[in-house]
Each structure stands twice: as C-alpha cells, then as structure tokens.
C-alpha cells in the first residue's frame, strides 16, 4: 500500500515537471528565463514596475505606447539586453542617436524611475532588460490590452550598436519584403509580424514618417493612391509638403489610447497611417488574411499578440554570467 502510494506520488511529480519547465527558455551564457526568477531575490519587483508604469501613464497617456515601443527597439538590436538605454560614454555610441530613435524614442526617464525604486528595495538584482520587458506588458494591460506571463532573468549589455539600430529596426518606409526579412532574421514569422504590428493601435507618429505617402510615394511626385483619399486630405492639412516634420498624428485615429483591434479595421479601410502598416493588406495575401482575422476577432488578436510578445522578448537574451545587472540603466557598471 505504501509502495503504491509512493508510485502515484512519483508519477504526479513527473507529470508536473514539464509544466514547470514549459515556462523556462534557454538564454545565452548557460542560464534560463523563467517567470519566477525574482520570487526570492526581489519578490516585489513586478509590483514596483507595475506601480511606476501606472503612475507614468496616468501622467502621460502616450507613455504606454512609448514604453512598449522601447522594448521593440531594444530587442531588434543585439537582442533584449537594454542596450537602447545606454548613453554616450567612453567607447559606447548610444543607440538613442539612430534614425529610428532620434527625436522619437521616449520613456527613458520612466525606466530610470522604476530602476531607482528597485535599487532601494533590492540593489543590483533586477536587470534593466527585465524592467523593459515588464514595462511593455504592464503598459499594454493599462491601455486595455492583453496580459501575459513574462519570462525573466535577462542581463544587461555592456555595449550598444548604433549601426544595428539603424539597420535592424523596421522603418515606416520599408517594403513588405524588407520588413518581413528583418522580423525573420530575429526568428519571428509572418504571424508575429502582423500581430506585433497591432501595437500601432496605440501611440503617435511624426509627419516625417509618412510624408512621402502624401506627396511623393514612388519618387514620381505623386501620392500613395492605396491611402484613402479623404483620410489623406486630413493628413495633408497638418503635414504640409514643406515643414511640420515633427507634428504628431495618431497611429489609430479611431481609438488612439485604447489597445484594441481597430488598427486592423483601419487597414482594411485603407486608413493605415504608415506605409509599413498599409503594406500588410496591399502586398501579401497571407498577411491580408491575418489582418482580416484580427479585425473580426479582437480576442484572437489579443491571444496572438501576447504569444508574439513573449517570443520577441526572448530574442538573444543575455543570461547566466553574460552581461551584468546595471546599477544605472544609462551606463555600464564601472
């Protein structure tokens, strides 16, 4: 009887092992990412991040999109290692000066605020890279989007890559094939591309990012005729042919601060702001079908967005003994 009970217990434990391991993702340097990484070393870590992000977004609703974007722009360069947060210093040339980030990337002071709060509670324990991953999730939830379990245990880079930032981050004017290739090189597929593009359901873009669509799409002095012309006329009123480059426009004119699937509905109405948005419905049949599915089913979009965010957050993380845990996210430890 005792022996049979022991066998049942053993089988139960063995059945539980795959469940525990399923949340573990192998990183570089012999370590793993897993959600419980800080449960003992800094149990209040996630609570602190969430609190600071909530206050920041309440002060500035645009911050939700900015923190989400910051995580994207970090992961596409050298992996999710907080290299985007480093300032110019010594041999480090900051990624903040790259074309995708200059006068555009924001939210650095919020990351500083989170890191400062964490350092008071558990010094040099929580990485800046993990702060960014958690901030992206919390920002999405605060804006009304889905939640997901964030694997943790990333470490911070001791260098940046300005050239990588200029070359690897998808640009608003890129062709569909160029964008797809940039995603593919990071291990992301077409489903990830379309779902993650849905992050443009919140946030703003500058006039300079889409001006060519209004006046000179293919270099022949003519606008992009795939853009709804009444919508184009509205855009031209505040995005003139000359000047106004820094003027801000909502990426999703229907619900700019609400994380939902209206972005996909806009694309089907040919009212996607950026060229990189509209090519999802004009240049590829598979991406068009995905746009239609997400436009019809908000829950399906939320489910896939959460999966794709976890996948993106696992791009080439530094773990184990690689990298470091920065005391200050803007500079490497001395």
TrEMBL record:
Annotated residues for binding of Ca(2+) 2: 201, 252, 260
A single GO BP term for this record reads: hydrogen peroxide catabolic process
**Active site residues per record:** 73
Stretch forming the signal peptide = 1-22
Cite the Plant heme peroxidase family profile domain residue spans from the record: 32-333
Instruction: Provide the E.C. number(s) assigned to this enzyme.
Output: 1.11.1.7
Which positions does UniProt annotate for heme b binding? 200
Identify the residues that bind Ca(2+) 1: 74, 77, 79, 81, 83, 95
* Xref: Gene3D superfamilies: 1.10.520.10, Peroxidase, domain 2 (1.10.420.10)
List ligand-binding residues for substrate: 170
Cofactor entry: Ca(2+); heme b
Q: Please name the Pfam families in this protein's record.
A: peroxidase
What does the entry comment about cofactor binding? Binds 2 calcium ions per subunit. Binds 1 heme b (iron(II)-protoporphyrin IX) group per subunit.
Q: Which GO terms describe its molecular function?
A: heme binding; lactoperoxidase activity; metal ion binding
Sorted UniProt keywords: Calcium, Disulfide bond, Glycoprotein, Heme, Hydrogen peroxide, Iron, Metal-binding, Oxidoreductase, Peroxidase, Secreted, Signal
Provide the protein's localization: Secreted
Q: Name one GO cellular component term.
A: extracellular region
> What residues does the record give for site: Transition state stabilizer?
69
Query: Which Cys-Cys disulfides exist here?
Result: 42-122, 75-80, 128-329, 207-239
Q: Keyword check for Oxidoreductase, yes or no.
A: yes
Q: What does this protein do?
A: Removal of H(2)O(2), oxidation of toxic reductants, biosynthesis and degradation of lignin, suberization, auxin catabolism, response to environmental stresses such as wounding, pathogen attack and oxidative stress.
What PANTHER family does the annotation carry?
PEROXIDASE 72, PEROXIDASE 72-RELATED
Q: What is the official name of this protein in its record? A: Peroxidase
């Amino acid at each position: 009887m005792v022996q049979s009970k022991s066998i049942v217990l053993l089988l139960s434990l063995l059945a539980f092992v795959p469940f525990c391991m399923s949340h573990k993702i192998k990183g570089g340097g012999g370590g793993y990412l897993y959600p419980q990484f800080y449960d003992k070393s800094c149990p209040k870590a996630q609570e602190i991040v969430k609190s600071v992000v909530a206050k920041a977004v309440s002060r500035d609703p645009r911050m939700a999109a900015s923190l989400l974007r910051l995580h994207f722009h970090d992961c596409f360069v050298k992996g999710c290692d907080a290299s985007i947060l480093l300032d110019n210093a010594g041999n480090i040339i900051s990624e903040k000066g790259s074309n995708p980030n200059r006068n555009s990337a924001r939210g650095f002071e919020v990351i500083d605020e989170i890191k400062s709060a964490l350092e008071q509670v558990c010094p040099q324990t929580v990485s800046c890279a993990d702060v960014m991953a958690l901030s992206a999730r919390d920002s999405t939830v605060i804006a009304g989007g889905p939640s997901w379990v964030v694997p943790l245990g990333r470490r911070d880079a001791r260098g940046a890559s300005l050239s990588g930032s200029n070359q690897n981050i998808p640009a608003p004017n890129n062709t569909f094939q160029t964008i797809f290739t940039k995603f593919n090189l990071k291990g992301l597929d077409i489903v990830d591309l379309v779902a993650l593009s849905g992050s443009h359901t919140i946030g703003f873009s500058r006039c300079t990012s889409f001006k060519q669509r209004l006046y000179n799409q293919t270099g022949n002095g003519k606008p992009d005729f795939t853009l709804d012309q009444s919508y184009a006329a509205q855009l031209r009123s505040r995005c003139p042919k000359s000047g106004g480059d820094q003027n801000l426009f909502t990426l999703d004119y229907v619900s700019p601060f609400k994380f939902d699937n209206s972005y996909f509905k806009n694309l089907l109405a040919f009212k996607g702001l950026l060229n990189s948005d509209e090519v999802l419905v004009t240049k590829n049949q598979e991406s068009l079908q995905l746009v239609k599915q997400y436009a019809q089913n908000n829950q399906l979009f939320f489910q896939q967005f959460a999966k794709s965010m976890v996948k993106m957050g696992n791009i080439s993380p530094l773990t184990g003994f690689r990298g470091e845990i920065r005391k200050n996210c803007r500079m490497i430890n001395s």
